[in-house]
Amino acid sequence: MTDEAAHGSRLGGVLHVVVVAGALSVLTVSLLAVVLGALGWWSPYAGWAAAIATAAATPWVMRGVRTTTLGRGTAAALALVALAAGAWLAATDADQLLPRRDAGSNLNAAVALADTGRRIVDPDARAVGAPEALAVKGITLASPAFYQTGSAADPAIQPQFVIGPAAVYSLGRPFGVGAMVALAACAMALALLGFGLLVAGVVGARWGPVAAAALAIVFPVVHTGRATYSEPLAELTVTAGLLALVLAARQGKARAALLAVGLVGGTTFVRIDGLRETILLIPVLAAYAVAGRRWWRPAAVGAAASTALAFGAALWLSYRYLGDIAASLVPLLALGLVLGIASATLVVLGRRGALRSWAPMARWARLPTVAGLLVVVAGAFLASRPVWQVVRQSPDNPGSRVVAGLQLRQGLTVDGGRTYAEHTVAWLSWWVGPAALVIALVALAALIRSLTRSLVRRALPDWAGPLVVASASTFLTLWRPGITPDHPWADRRLLIALPLVVALVVAAAAWAARRLGRLGPLVAGLVVVALVVPTALATWPHVTERVEAGSTAAVDDVCRSLHAGDVVLAVDSRAANEWPPVVRGFCGRPALSTTAALRKDPAALADAVDRVAAVVRARGGRLVLLAADGPEALTAAGGTGIRQVSSVEVNEDERLLTRRPDHLVALRIDVWLAQPATS
What ranges in 170-318 are assigned the alpha helix state H? Predict the structure, then answer.
């Protein structure tokens, strides 16, 4: 090996360690937060200590695992792409303090975890007038993404999602909101680095930077990497896990296999949808078992253990959330059961020698071609759905009411039950272009054909695991995205599908470069252009966007207007949706809310305000009424001394149903405060 090759090998090893260290740190911090957050002992500094210790131990964890050899220039290019992407995302980060979306909800959950040390927060029951105030019909501690649990005398507030995002983003709390959001950019940058290494390992070293750079400019990747969503963290852990799976398949190392399944299975700590990718690993491990790979057994045990820990943590600390998504969760668990039984059966048959006759049997000769054709059929099936299908859900679903409002404002036929799930392939084409989708489908068909041929011969290529997991996950997501279909919000669901498309297009370019002789470089270049140009054009309008930048000023205005002893009651719809967790976390004041039913009855609302004000006053506090839709609700609630304390205009995502968004729209953040007439 030349000195340059040896140096490139070392650089490649360092980059692998960096990616795996980041992913393991995410899971270690999440697991530690489960224990300490349940006991009320969590601290961001404990999280930093765990992350640093995990990163320091990662070289030992990966000891003996041979990583992909990269040339010095290739390694430097990959590192540069990741650093540039991370810097861009951090410089254009979102400022979503209000829990209008999951990013704001995660941010407020992280603030609560960091400041109280508890995952399920115990509010100051005396200050909010419990139990008397909470016994008033229509008065609650709950708000979107934050449940009220416990009794009226001993209430608690449970954040909606699994604990991982709150735990990781809480690490930035001592350094300010900007540092919390920057952690998302760092996670996405590491995910891009891992994706480049994965492509470099299975397609060719020089194609890694190309793939990483192409994915870095795909807008849904950019959009989620700018804010405290769960997706950057999940993207990192899944990518690192699949990268380790390739190394395990290539070398037969049980250590790498355990690392792979631990990372993929542990993704459920940061995103409950991570169960899907873990479940899809089951048939992959079964195939490796049938192929005689000895490391499948510890890998299966590791996958079960990591998934059980993560899902158990969700059941313990996010049980209300799991109940809410049971309609999606139960079918996924049923799929896991079916795949588990089928895979176990295949393993038993394989170990008994019942599958040895597969290869020589003439009837299997056409199976690889049939498998490839089925991929094309599946792609055509998904793409053609708008012609023959309109997907709907129950009109009573809360998301249906949101969709109906968007349809009305956008001049569409009002049909709130529509999920627009039949258009998911079009969602993909918005961001990468139709040509890239066609190229990716052809490449996927060819790879599935090759994979099936290997399966018949009881052999598996090292890229089999990532391809099967990503392809099956993409199909399930495109069939049922399970999200309110307003864009670019809904495009978060595509963060497995989009990397798969990019990897397949790059693989097609690499094949052309190798197989087409003198025309190869030209064709390869055209294939890459077919991906990069539409992607860049789609992302260009969003290059410098900063979603809700300036909302910090609105929060500061409200916090400055509150004083010691104040207890805030949100009295209109927008105030109840956005401000209670912000007042508790950023302002450090107790906060109550009103239900929609109470707000529809002005007389009952005014009576409830008087009763709560009396209880709070008896405890030595002062009730402050907060409205964000307008001052009218304060008047209806019997408020006096009405004053506007914040008037800020920011820009938010456009939220479209039937076309790709290309700009932000104005959003007013106005807040009025008042005191009850009886105070």
Answer: 177-202, 207-216, 219-225, 231-251, 254-266, 274-290, 296-317
